[in-house]
Structure formats: structure tokens, C-alpha cells
Amino acid sequence: MNNIFVNQVGFMPNSKKKAVLNFKAEEFQVIDGNGNTALKGAVSHFGTDEISGEDTYVADFSQVTNQGTYKIVANDVSSASFLVGDNAYDKLMKDVCKCFYYLRCGHGMDKKYAGKYYHEPCHVSKATVYGEDVPPVDVCGGWHDAGDFGRYSTAGAVAVAHLLYAVRFFPKLLEVEFDIPKSDLPDILAEVKVELDFLMKMQREDGSVWHKVTTFSHAPFVMPEDDKEELFLFNVSSLATADIAAVFALANTVYGAYDKEYAKLLLERSLKAYKWLEANNDAVLFKNAEGSNTGEYPENEDNSNRFWAAAALFEATGEKKYYQDALKQKPFIEAYDKQDAFKEYTGNIFTCFGWADVAGLGALSLILKNDRSEIYEFVKQALIGEANRLVKNSSENGFGLCMKKENFIWGSNMELLKYLMVLTVANKLEPKAEFVNTLTAGLNYLLGCNSMDVSYVTGNGEKAFKNPHLRPTFAAKLDAWPGLVSGGPNTGLQDERAQELPKDTAPMKCYIDHVDCYSLNEITIYWNSPLVFVLAGLM
Ligand code: G3I
Ligand code: 9MR
Ligand code: ZN
Predict the structure, then answer these.
(1) For residues 247 and 305, is the Cβ–Cβ distance under 8 A?
(2) For residue 34, with 0-12 CB atoms within 10 Å meaning exposed, 13-18 middle and 19 or more buried, which class applies?
(3) H helix count then E strand count, the chain
(4) Of 123, 211, 469, 514, which one is the catalytic site residue?
(5) If you take atom 7 of ligand 1, which residue's CA is the nearest one?
(6) Considering every ligand atom, which ligand is closest to the CA of 228?
(7) CB of 295 closer than 6 A to ligand 2?
(8) What is the domain count for the chain?
(9) Among residues 164, 36, 149, 14, which one has the least CA distance to residue 538?
(10) Last residue of one domain, picked from the residues 88, 112, 143
(11) 210 Cα–ligand 3 center, Å
(12) Are 77 and 101 found together in one domain?
């Protein structure tokens, strides 16, 4: 089918603007909201690439800078419409932030703010400590992780980290309002506090942190309040403990400006977790209990987590000891970096911001510290080096997308957003038009300039995906609420319905907008949070 793929949300006036055609045309036109031609131009042939499987032609309409709504037309084909203007991402940003509110667990929701997406209090009973004969524990609150109702400490810590680092790097984010109950805190910090309060409950008396709280098996597709199975706190891990030490240290700095008592508590809890790590030098990894199928969030090592904890505490307290500790983890992480299997699909581990490899988050703390030390220079070069690699990748396909075929794994949109975070930070360290253009092209891909012709954010874009793997909206027979980021194309095809796709499907097309496809079309807190970081950078 002949298509014109374009970012269906919009463009900043001065950004590069490109659409991709999968057919040959002599010229293209940009049509404004009144049906007038705003620009005529020639398309250039790019050719085929290994990620999209399309023979692509590119229409560059960067010259269109006037505020307005437009679409692209070539031959008799028309694209989706989009905005040009300084406000192009305003609705998107609010929607993406509001999703955390809709994902609140426990007593977190109010009809006034949740509207038709309100659900009754859920997962309020105390949780059984798995395999131990101790009293059950209150861990009520926080956010559901994703399409499932699990609450996972490492995943939660990482989502919070994306949001709080965004606040640190781009304080304008504090001005974004997204219709949640008012408090003395800016909206974004009020929302993040919901998860921080929950994460505090996940910490044991001895400082260690439970890896997750979930039912034994995933719930059926029911409303959260109808999921009444017993809740279990599964084993502690050094992964969760280190991530919590890190994110509480980061939060200490952010909340200190608003609430000294709360900030003090966060630091105490961070130090308590860190002390436990010091007393437990060997990694305590995590495996699901026999027969349990909820999210595992497994990791092979805890060096990147310990590195993040040390770097965050160094940034928060200024104590040299933590700097030395961070330095101690560096050789281990670099050794991991050298494994071929790892290098195949990612760049440099000091630029990783995912739920497993968190050394990049430590790097962000060191960048904020900005002390020009040996390790500061090292991570700075790692970020800039990775950004340069991404710029090069983006020249290898017609979409200007900085991804390789290996990146199309479960949650490929997070792989992309992680790269856009790298480009955002690199551009702050060493401003370069190429970084900004690669970033813009990546955002264009997410919002519709891709060979699926789909915007991967619900409610944003004429052809936005509609059927996330998400229990509450499915159970309530409602359209998904706006602002959810889909996991996106995944050549792994790890669910039954995904396996209906032909085996030789191009990576960019390994996607189905179907509620059953948890390996292609689920949503999670830590796929939304990096988009907040990237949009905050653009503000
Ligand atoms: O690390 C390997 C890499 O070496 C290899 O080259 C590459 C290609 O196969 O795969 C990499 O591993 C992937 C791993 O994520 C790390 O990114 C696996 O293939 C992939 O299956 C795995 O997917 C994770 C999935 O759970 C299954 O474990 C997703 O990242 C993770 O986001 C997702 O998380 C789920 C929770 O378990 C439950 N809640 C919903 C959430 C989102 O779907
Ligand atoms: O719905 C679950 C989703 O949130 C998880 O990411 C995924 C992997 O843990 O599992 C989904 O649950 C499926 C379960 O694993 C197998 N039976 C079908 C479930 C979805 O309906
Ligand atoms: Zn709940």
C-alpha cells in the first residue's frame, strides 16, 4: 500500500521536518488547514534498508515554520495531519504524565480526577512474605507496573529516576500541570511521591528491599479491585536495594527544596539501603519462585546498580567515599560491556537507562555533579561517543532512525527513548545540530513516521494505536486513556498472537495493535517516563 509516514502529533517551528513515502512521486505538497498549498518540493530517493523493508523516498518540509495544522500530499496519497508550533507537544506532555495517575494502586484515585477511568481501591490487603514465617506487611500504594498489576521495585525506581532526573536537568517540567489533586508540590513531584512512598514500604527493617510484590500468577483481564488473590512479597535483591539507595538519594535533593522532613527521611532510607549493600558484598540476584509467572526483572550482575547507588549518593552528599565506591564498580561494568552478546544490541553500558542496566543513571548523577573528575570525564565521553554512534546509525535508513535491527526487542520503543535521552544529554554537554536532528527523527518515528504508519502514543495522532495490553481499560470496555507509550515492534514475537506474523517480517513491522500482544503492545511506567525526560528536554 502507498503511504506517507509522518509524525502525527507535530513539530517545533525550527526543527527539521521530514516525511517518508514508500512510493515514487515527482513532487510533494504541504497543505494547510484551509486547503492551501504551504510548500511544494521534490522528494529524494533513499532506497531500502534492513529495518523497515520499504523502498523509501524522503520529503523535507523544514521550511514550513508558521503555526498551523498541515498534511502532506503526493500523487493521490495524503498523510495524517499534524501541528507546527511551539505548543506542538503540550497535550502530549500532559497526557504522558497523567498516565501515572491512572496507574495508581491502592487508595490513590479520586473520581474528580480519574473521571471514567476511576477504579475502586485495589491491592489493599497486607502482603505475605514469601517463604518466611513473619507477619504480613502493608505495602499498599504506588503505581501498577504496566498492563499487569504487579509492583516491582527496580522498575519503579527506574521510572521515578527518569522523572526526577528530568526535573533536575530541565526544571521547566515543574511547571507542567496535568490535572491531579493539588498539593504543596508541583504536579510531577506530587505524582512521583506516590511511588516513592510505596518504595519506602518495600524496604525491610535491615535496609534491604523486596524485589517485588505481586500475586503468585498474573491476574485475568479484570478490574484492579477485582484482583483479590493473595499478595506476596518475593525475595529481597541487591538489585532492588541498590536502585532504591540511588533513587532515594536523588529524591533527597529534589524534595529538599519543598519538604525538609521528607527529604531527610529519603536520605536516611538511602543510607540504610547502602549500609546493607556494604554488609552484603556478593550480588543477591532474583529468580521467580517455582511456578510463579509474574514479571521477573532478572539481571545478571549488580555492578551497574551499585555504581548508580554510589554515584547518586556522591552527588547528593558530596562525600568522596561514594566517589571511590563508584570507581570500584567501573572495571566490572566495562568488562560486561565487552561481551559480544551485549554489544550487539546496545552501545555503551554507561549510557543505559533501562530497568536492568542502570549505569547510565549513575552517569547522569555524575554529570549533574559536574566536578570534572576522572569519572566525570569518562561518562561524559561515553555519552557523547554514544550520541555520535546514534547519529551515524540514523544515516542508514530513510526514517533517520538511530536504531539497528538488534534494537527491535521487547520494549523497542524504550530502546529508542533511551537513545533519545542520550542525545538529549549529549546535546546539553556539547550542543550539536546533528544530535538535535537525530533526536527529532526519533521522536518522529515514535509519533508516526514509521512503516506501521502508527503513532505509538494513545490519543496522540490520527492513527494512534488503540489496543494496549492493559487490564483496566479492557475490563471496563473503555478506550485506552491517552498518553500511553506502546512497547512497540519486537522481532522476538514472544506471545501467541504475535507469532501469527510471518517469520521474515521486517523489524519495524513486527507489530500488531492487539490487546493480546503483550510482547508487542503492552505499556509500562518506565516506557512513559523516558518520554517525559525527552519532551522536557525539548521544552
Ligand atoms: O539481554 C538480551 C540481549 O542479550 C539479546 O541480544 C536481546 C535479543 O534477544 O534480548 C535481550 O533480552 C531481552 C530482555 O528483555 C532485556 O531487554 C529479552 O529478549 C526480552 O524478552 C526481555 O523482555 C522483558 C520482558 O518483561 C520479559 O522478561 C522486557 O524488557 C520487560 O520490559 C518486560 O517487563 C514486563 C514485566 O515482566 C511484567 N510487567 C509488564 C512488563 C512490560 O511488558
Ligand atoms: O499480562 C501479562 C503481561 O503484563 C506480562 O508482561 C507478560 C509477561 O510476564 O505476561 C502477561 O500475562 C500472560 C501470561 O504470562 C501467560 N498467560 C497469558 C497472560 C496474558 O493474558
Ligand atoms: Zn492495585
Answers:
(1) no
(2) exposed
(3) 16, 14
(4) 469
(5) 409
(6) 3
(7) yes
(8) 2
(9) 14
(10) 88
(11) 17
(12) no
**pLDDT at residue 344 above 60?**
no
Q: What is the pLDDT of residues 107-150, one digit of tens each?
A: 999 999 999 999 999 999 999 999 999 999 999 999 999 999 99
**Closest residue CA from atom 1 of ligand 2:** 148
Instruction: Give the pairing type, strands 44-48 and 55-60.
Output: antiparallel
Q: Looking at residue 207, what DSSP letter applies?
A: S
Q: How is residue 377 written as a grid cell?
A: 570525564
Residues 239, 355: Cα–Cα separation, whole Å: 10
Residue 459's CB is within 10 A of a number of other CB atoms, namely 17
Q: How many angstroms separate the CA atoms of 20 and 56, rounded?
A: 6
What span, in angstroms and rounded, lies between the C-alpha atoms of 465 and 51?
20
Catalytic residue, chosen from 54, 95, 145, 148, is: 148
From ligand 2's centre to the CA of 530, what distance in Å? 23
- Determine the Cα–Cα distance for residues 415 and 445; give it in Å rounded to an integer: 13
Q: Are residues 426 and 282 in the same domain?
A: yes
pTM (two decimals): 0.98
Query: Which 8-state DSSP code applies to residue 403?
Result: -
C-alpha closest to that of 207 among 251, 156, 157, 241: 241
* Alpha-carbon span 223 to 219, nearest angstrom: 9
- Same domain for 107 and 67, yes or no, is no
Q: Which of 7-11, 336-340, 469-473, 529-533 has the lowest mean pLDDT?
A: 336-340
Domain range for 18: 1-88
**Residue 237, pLDDT score:** 98
Ligand at minimal distance from the CA of 223 is 3
Residue type, 205: E
C-alpha dihedral, 496 to 502 to 504 to 505, nearest 10°: -80
